[in-house]
Predict the 3D structure of the following.
Amino acid sequence: MDSLSLMDKITALCKRRGFIFAGSEIYGGLANTYDYGPAGTELLRNIRNLWWDNFVHKRDDVVGLDTSIISHQEVWKASGHTSGFADAMIDCKNCKLRMRADHLIEEITKEKAEGKTLEELNKIIQNNVKIVCPNCGEHDWTNPRKFNLLFPVNLGIIEGDQSLAYLRGETAQGMFINFKNVVDSSRVKLPFGIAQLGKSFRNEITPGNSVFRTLEFEQAELEYFFDPNVQNWEKLFTDWKNAMWDFTTKTLGINKDNLRWREHDDKERSFYSKKTEDLEYKFPFGFKELWGIAYRTDYDLRQHTKFSKKDLSIIDPTTSKKIIPHVIEPAVGINRMLLMILSDSYVEEEGRIILKLNPRLAPYKAAVFPLLANKPELVEKAKKIYKDLRSSFVAVFDGRGNIGKRYFAQDEIGTPFCITVDFQALEDDTVTIRDRDTMKQERVKISGLVNLISKKII
Ligand code: GAP
C-alpha cells in the first residue's frame, strides 16, 4: 500500500462508514473544518474518556477543569499570544493561493523550516526555483508575512476595543487563570496537575491531511504545577514522557515502530518554553507531531500576575515558602489522535478492509444480526439480544442486506464481534460469535455473551 493512496483510502472509508465528513459539505465545504458522523463521534468519545480516566480519575494528583471558550482579551495579551502567536504566510502572485511558508518549504525540500525568521524563509524560497506553487506550478511568491492565529470575537453591540474578546487558542490559559480558584476550592497541594478537555481555535491555513490540522479542534491538556526547589524538573519531564508513551502504546495500542520523540531546537521552541519535545506519529503523509510536552517554567502564572495585578503565588507546604509554581505541560489533540488511530488500524487482508481497532476504542463493541431479515422470529430474538447487550456496552443491530455484506460493513467500522442469530438459536439459546481479526466463529450460549465480550473490551 503506497502512503498517498493510504490517506485517500482512509478518507473514503471515513465518509462511507460515518467517521468524518467535510464541514458544511452541502454548501460546497468550508476549508479546514470537519464534522464527525455516528461512528466517528463514538470513537472521539472513547479517546476522550480513556484520556480523562487515565490522567484524571486514576491519579491522586490531578483534578479536572472546564473553562470557557470565549475569553477576555487581556488573557491573550498576558500569555503573549496576541503578539507572538503567528504563522508566516506567503501568497502565490499568480493564482493567489495562500500557504504557510515553512510548510511550503518542508513539502518540497523535506527540510525542517518551522521557527525560521521571515528573512530566512524568504531567502530559501526566492533562491530555490523548485519551490513552486502546488496549485498552479509557478515560482512567483510574495514576501512571507506574519498572520495572527487567534480568532477575535466582538461581544455585544458596542463596536470597538471594549467588546473585543478571543476564542481560545489553547485550553491551557483557562487553567492558568483559574489556578488560584482551584487551589482555594480543592485539596490540591504541590506537585499537582490541572487537566482540561475542550475545543480550541486557530486561524490556520493548511491544505489537505483530513483532521490533522483544522480551524477548530479538541485539545486534551494537562498543566503539572511544582516547586522547582523541591522537584527536579528533568525527572518530572521524563516521568510525563513515559506516561504519554504508555498511554499511546498500551492504552490506545499504537504500534511503537510508528512513534518517535523529537526535541525542538532553540528556533522552533515556543517563546514560553525552556524545553519542548514532540511525540511524533508516522501518519500516511510522514512523521508529524501528535503530542507535545513543554516545560513552561513559571512564565504564564507570572504574566497573569503582572497583567491582572492579582497575586498568584502560593505557599508550598513542604518548604513553607511563598512561590509561583513552575509547570510541565503535556498537550495533545483528540482529533489528531483519532486520525492516528484510524491510520494505525487500517488493514487490507484478502480482499477485506478491516479497522483493527483496539476493542476498547471501537465505536461499537458488538453487532447483532438475524440470519434472515424476513423471518420475524429471528428478528425478534436478535433484537432482544441486542437490547440486553446494549445495557452493558455500545452495540448495533443490523438487519440489512446479506450476512456477508453486514460482516464487510462491521469490519470496516472496526466492530470486534458480530453475533448471528440462526434457527438453532430458537431451539437451544445459542448463537455464533465471529471475531473481526481472525474471522473465527464460535457457538456460545446467549446467557454468557455479556460476560464474554465485556472481558475482551476492557
Ligand atoms: N498549550 C500548548 C499547545 O497548545 P500545541 O503544540 O500548539 O501546544 C497541542 O498544541 C496539541 O494540539 C498538538 O500536539 C496537536 O495534537 C493539537 N493541535 C494543535 N493545533 C491543531 C490544529 N490546528 N488542528 C488539530 N490539532 C491541533
Summary: The chain has a mean pLDDT of 94. The pocket of glycyl-adenosine-5'-phosphate is lined by residues 170, 172, 202, 204, 213-214, 217, 219, 221, 289-292, 329, 331-333, 335-336 (CB under 6 Å). The chain is about 35% helix and 30% strand.
